[in-house]
Each structure stands twice: as C-alpha cells, then as structure tokens.
Design a protein that fits this description.
The termini are far apart. Strand 2 and strand 3 form a beta hairpin. This protein is 39% helix and 22% strand. It folds into two domains: 78 residues, OB fold (Dihydrolipoamide Acetyltransferase, E2P) (Beta Barrel), CATH 2.40.50.140; 154 residues, de novo design (two linked rop proteins) (Up-down Bundle). It contains eight helices and eight strands. The strands form two sheets. A five-stranded mixed barrel has the order 1-2-3-5-4. Strands 7-6-8 form a three-stranded antiparallel β-sheet, with no helix packed on it. It is an alpha+beta fold.
C-alpha cells in the first residue's frame, strides 16, 4: 500500500471507536481527505494534540484507491495557531471559515488555491488586531471566490443590467438592480465593503461597521452551499446573529 506525504489542515475529527478517530483534512493535492487515526483516543497518545482541529500538519498516510477513509501513518505539527485558539472570539469565528472550506472542497481533487486561501486566512487571523468579524468575512469571501461562488457585484445577477452603488442583493448570486427582486438592500458602505473583501486577495483590508456584511455573508454562504452551517448557529448563540 503506497505512502503519500502532504501538508494539510485539520478540519474536524469524530470518534470512531474506543481508541481511534476519523479526521478530515484539507490538503493541496487530495482536497478533502478523511483518514483513520488509529490509537488517537488512547491515553497519552501523541496524535491527540497533533490532530486538534485547525492544526496545520505534515501528514503521511497510506493511500488505497477507491477507499473512502485512508489510514494515518505519521503526523507532525507545523502550526497549532495558538494565537487563535487562545483568543475565544478568534477561535469561534475561525470555525466558520474551516466549515466553509470543508463544504466547498471535493474529495480526491487538487485544491491548491483553496488550501492556500485557508492557510493565508488563518495566518492573518492569528495576528489580526481589528474586528474579528471583518477578518472572517474576508476569509469566507476568499474561500467562496476560489471555489467558484464569488458574488456578482458589477451587474445584476438576474437581468445583467448595471447596478448602482446602493443595489439590492440576492443570496442566490449577488447584486441586483432596482427593478429585480432582492433579499435585502445594500448601503453604499456595504457595497464598498463587499468589493474590498473580494478585491484584496492577499490580506484583509481595514474595514468599519462590518456587522451587516457579516450577516449578509452568513446567509449567502448558506444559500450557495445549500446546507445549514453549524458554526454559524454556534456563533449566533455566543455572540448574537
């Protein structure tokens, strides 16, 4: 059975048996990758801490074509993102980006741009000193854009007409003109904020009053991905919708 080595980010883990866990990773070459970590639940197992959610690791696994869950061979920690995990608000909002990354990734499909966007976002969040919601908005927008879910802002998503600086917004695809139905109206500040989030690919821009844009993006992501996001429900309970 061939071994493969890759860098990866731990997206989530679930208990499988008294001693093992199934861990889901995002990797550049294989996309979303599920692996059995045998013995990870045993007392004092070194795998337990290394396979913590959000960790960036170097992973060696045994690959078998056609098997849905591969087997972990070796794993070494590259970055535990302690500056995020040690900050309640950052850790909570980072879960939103991790869940979006896991939803848009495909199994056994190269995902280099998506992986790079996720790692870039986590690195930025670790040292971010501004509104945490602003940074997670940027992270989520970048992940959605890489995966092909970029919201249309220049023309109406329904009829193709030009839009003003205060357009409507449809969760089905983006901005709308005044004549087409919309889920909500955008202020000029909201519209400018969305453009900045999309256009700044390398780092989160400095933004103010992102509360309404965060609300918009959580609804947009849910509609685009056609699934409820458990991270958003938790965030609502912790910090309000």
């Amino acid at each position: 059975m061939p071994q493969e080595r890759t860098e990866a980010v731990v997206l989530r883990g679930v208990d499988f048996s008294e001693s093992s866990r199934i861990v889901t990773f995002l990797s550049p070459e294989r996309g979303r990758l599920a692996c059995m970590a045998k013995g990870a639940r045993r007392p004092k197992s070194p795998l337990s801490a290394v396979l913590d959610t959000m960790n960036r690791v170097e992973l060696v696994y045994y690959w078998k074509e056609g098997r849905g869950v591969q087997v972990v061979g070796e794993v070494a920690l590259l970055d535990g993102f302690g500056l995020i995990k040690g900050h309640l608000e950052k850790a909570a909002f980072a879960s939103f980006a991790l869940e979006v990354a896991g939803k848009v990734a495909h199994e056994n499909e190269p995902s280099r741009a998506l992986y790079a966007a996720l790692v870039r976002g986590l690195n930025g969040l670790a040292v971010w000193a501004g509104d945490v919601r602003a940074h997670v908005c940027w992270q989520v927008v970048q992940l959605l854009c890489v995966a092909g879910y970029e919201p249309a802002l220049d023309v109406c998503v329904n009829c193709g007409s030009a839009v003003s600086e205060t357009p409507g917004f449809s969760y089905a695809g983006g901005a709308t003109c005044g004549a087409c139905p919309a889920d909500r109206r955008l202020t000029s500040e909201d519209y400018a904020c969305l453009r900045a989030l999309i256009e700044n690919r390398e780092a989160c821009p400095s933004l103010r009053q992102v509360g309404s844009v965060y609300s918009l993006l959580r609804h947009y992501a849910t509609r685009q991905l056609e699934t409820d996001l458990s991270s958003v429900r938790v965030l609502d309970e912790m910090f309000g919708g």
